[in-house]
Amino acid sequence: MTTKLAIIYYSSTGTNYQMAKWAKDEAEKQGAEVKLVRAPELAPMEAIEQNPAWKEHFEATKDVVPEAKVDDLEWADAFIISAPTRFGNVPAQIKQFFDMAGGLWAQGKLVNKVASAMSSAQNPHGGQEATILNIYTTMYHWGAIVVSPGYSDDAIFAAGGNPYGTSVSVDGEGNMKEDVEGAVRHQAKRTLEVATKLNQ
Ligand SMILES: Cc1cc2nc3c(=O)[nH]c(=O)nc-3n(C[C@H](O)[C@H](O)[C@H](O)COP(=O)(O)O)c2cc1C
């Protein structure tokens, strides 16, 4: 049976979108059926328009990447969730999406889904680890099986050594400071390997 992976991300300025796209590319190479979906934007246009990079990214993706639906959670065997830090926590857009899953959760339909998370911040210690752990808290409540990378591949060291999930820092221009593509690809592959074993 083909393993189904939902990659759910939120991104204001493109970093987490890029990580999500690397994960999608790798998962498809591994033979998974992949849905790449974005948490619906909640910010008002006045706020988005004040930040040219945010506006540009929003316009570039709004008609290209489908919005995440709770049905995607039911459909998937595994999730990869990628979100920038907001003061060490998840963006409201991701939290709102999680909060929409109450019905599925109450019916036990999220139990034994495989989950793994990625994050970014402006500073190297700006809250990436806390953000990933906050995502995992929700996953534990769902009864999902969290697959963290640990130190299971050399690519994790090259990316900065975050064992909870791939994370990156971004400079003032929005460029990624660490080389995380290999770690993202490894995380996607590992998540799928576990999900595929569970689905056998
Ligand atoms: C409301 C808000 C809070 C943020 N909090 C932090 C923070 O505490 N530390 C930090 O290093 N970066 C912080 N950032 C920077 C973002 O995490 C950064 O812009 C993001 O990781 C870039 O990812 P994206 O391109 O996918 O949007 C914050 C940004 C916003 C808008």
Automatic annotation (TrEMBL):
Transmembrane segments: none
Pfam families assigned: FMN_red
PROSITE patterns recorded: FLAVODOXIN_LIKE
Taxonomic superkingdom: Bacteria
Residue span, Flavodoxin-like domain: 5-192
GO molecular-function term, one example from the UniProt record: FMN binding
InterPro entries found in the cross-reference section: Flavodoxin/NO_synth, Flavoprotein-like_sf, Flavoprotein_WrbA-like, FMN_Rdtase-like_dom
GO terms under cellular component: membrane
NCBIfam families: flav_wrbA (TIGR01755), PRK03767.1 (NF002999)
PANTHER family membership: FLAVODOXIN-RELATED PROTEIN WRBA-RELATED, FLAVOPROTEIN-LIKE PROTEIN YCP4-RELATED
Family: Belongs to the WrbA family.
Protein name, UniProt field: NAD(P)H dehydrogenase (Quinone)
